[in-house]
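Quick illustration for those who missed Monday's session on complexes.
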Amino acid sequence: MKNERTGCNTVLLYEADAYIKTFQGKILSVLEKEGKLYLELSETVFFPEGGGQNGDRGRIEGYEVIDTKKIDGRVYHILEMPSQEETEKAAEILKPGRTVSGEVDFALRFRRMQNHIAEHLFCGIANKRFGYDNVGFHLSDVVTFDLDGPLTEEEVSSIEDACNKAIWENVPVTVSFPSPEEAETLPFRSKLELSEGIRLVGIEGYDLCACCAPALHSTGEIGIVKVLDRMPHRGGTRITLIAGEDAWKDYRNIDFQMGELMKIFSAKREKVFEAASEFAAKTQEMHLENTELKKQITGLYAENLLKEIHSGANVPTKICFFMKDADEAQVRNVINRCVKEYDGILAGFRGNDSEGYRYVCGRREGLEKEPKALSLRMLAARMKEAFGGSGGGSEIMIQGSAPAREAVIREFFAD
Ligand SMILES: [Zn+2]
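Prediction with zinc ion bound:
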């Protein structure tokens, strides 16, 4: 029989008491979808997905309930089946009229309640102080919600402070079911146009809000509220926060990381940021120094090469040079600088004998069109034949690898 207020056939036991962990209910209907069984029961402690919060999990008759969803006004417990054979066997047993026992995953339920009621508390305080409404809510690993007005960082911190004070005060969280007439006289927050009957979750002295989800008994159970992020969103503010067990686990994780950072920087806890900032500044300085040194080295190599190029007669048509510890950009820079004054092919190698070399070969643009010009692509193929490795590119520049010793490479280019 349909409940007038909730609009579904199932009595939702968690609405009045979210601490009932086990229950018995009669099967009202069963669906089979994609190897899973969907059970509708006369009553349940499982909260079906709704209002931004996922459905409860747990077990029914030993089967894992992976989700609870409201579909066309019916609350379905979705049972995961290990195999098609098992689905058929279970479908034989789980028939309408039969009474089944279930148990909700209460650890998960409690975590979600901590986060959900923390959101109520934050929004209730924001509403009282600034008149903002909550216009979006999503609860996953963290709570994310949108308020319809701007908040500065200081304002968010101040609301966060007030939330934690409300937790220490340990004020009652209440659930009530006012009639539509009673509800009209009550100043409660609501995200929705309420079509169904009204259920209100109150936080004494802080908030009153229409809500369909399981609620804690008192604010003390929230444990702690920590805002993780605040960002402007469509003229309002998007807040991400965590509460309770999630916040404590996050703190534990951060504490672990802090310990590791203290070791890395040999710094006291309160000096880690200072030490990290100094380190970052020093790194930046070293980076600039390193760039300058690389430039100088590149310049020296280019100078040497140009000396060889301008040494007089018998300048070879190919010259190879080794910049063992250089990066590719350095080798390219040397080539680009020297080909302006050289009519042959320059081949730069970096690496070492034990791990092999990477090369870049280039020449001045336009030279490749001369009738007697050597083909760079053919040179890449010949190097591959001689050294192994791989390579290719254009007739202006080729690059590749040469897993060979320096002496062998020099011999190759002496030809
Ligand atoms: Zn709610």
